[in-house]
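Exercise: predict the fold of this chain.
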Amino acid sequence: MLMRIWYALALTLVCMINLASAVSSSLPKTYTLETVYENDSPATLQIVYMPPDFPAQPSIVYGTGFFVGDQGYFITADHVVDKYEKGTPRETAVIHQQDGGGIGLWFELVEEDKQHDLALCKIIGGFSLKKSSRLLQGQTGRPRKSLRRVTSFAVADRVIKAGEPIALLGFPLGAFVTPVIQGGNVAATNAILTSAYNFPGFHGGDNFIVSVAGNHGNSGGPVISLTTNEVIGVLVQYVPAPLITTADGYQIPQQSGLMVAVPTKFVIQLLKHNHVALKTITLKDDLAF
């Protein structure tokens, strides 16, 4: 009798373990902000505008971009490159180095999608990618501490769902040296925001909203799924909140905590139209620029 009881208990325990394992394996994997920052910050770059009277007037952080593929292509918001001048250094793409410095690279504007505020660009000459180990052995004139490993993003082609956890990487408010990471979620895929300029009618309802308090400089940056570590959207606009008027009559701007993004289905259209292969670079490739 006692043996039967022990057998029944053991069988129940095995069933419970198998059930827990099945449930665990069916749950979506969730990436942490730390993991995303480590893996994906090397895939982000800074778009900097240099005024004609530079250095009398300092350069300005104009927005964010992110690498796709392995040939030096990157995506940003079209309005971020509205001061682009072919063959001039008015706008450059800055790749930051481990020592805090940065390399400003000229790029070409490959194609604009003005309807969805997207732009496909490419570093002139493409990447000069080499194994980090070789660079560390002194086969380059650059010091070891300045080496910058390079990655690129996988781009999702799927339906975006409200509530999905996301991360932003970008260079808001003139941030330099390293990108800024923020966490949030997809707030809505079909809401109407009367405070957002031309949203959503101008784009035919093709945008979605994220609940992250982004700022100037975030434009063109990636919206990264914390479930798949893929880019699911491109930030194109922060949403202002009504001004607060103080007793003295001063108007204080507020941050709404919302931003507008364009889904990556339109990024994929740009990439396919220009025959850009999405061969993703990861940290495991051990490549440096």
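Check your answer against the key: Confidence is low (pLDDT under 50) at residues 13-17, 19-28.
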